[in-house]
Design goal:
alpha/beta; 123 residues; Rossmann fold; three-stranded parallel sheet; globular
């Protein structure tokens, strides 16, 4: 939900200067990413298969059409919510049969996040 809402904010909230979304694409009823007005960076696990919520190909096409700077990163062998390191997140992923530990993917995503926000939010 958070990633979808982040992308929606790039469409719906004029005060947003940049967005980083971790897994999630907004429904077309909420916001069309083709109308994004702020730069968008998005992160998805390759094994994230929530129908209608993880369509990375459609998201990339729409972001390209928007004309805003964007990056979409896909992490091989990773499932949904890989950045959620809370005990509840770990338990939920394990109950869904998802591999939990990929510290390299987490660190790579954080470095990309930091670089993106530094580029678009630094004075």
């Amino acid at each position: 939900m958070g990633g979808a809402l982040s992308i929606a904010s790039s469409v719906l909230v004029p005060e947003v200067d940049a967005v980083v979304a971790f897994y999630g694409v907004p429904s077309s009823e909420l916001a069309d990413p083709a109308k994004a007005k702020a730069p968008v960076q998005a992160h998805f696990g390759e094994r994230d298969n929530f129908v209608g919520f993880s369509d990375v190909t459609a998201l990339e096409e729409k972001l390209k059409a928007s004309g805003v700077p964007y990056e979409v990163h896909i992490y091989p062998g990773i499932g949904h919510a890989f950045m959620n390191r809370s005990p509840e997140g770990v338990k939920r992923r394990k109950s869904m049969g998802m591999e939990d530990e990929d510290e390299a993917a987490v660190q790579l995503a954080w470095s990309r996040f930091t670089s993106w926000m530094t580029r678009y939010l630094s004075p």
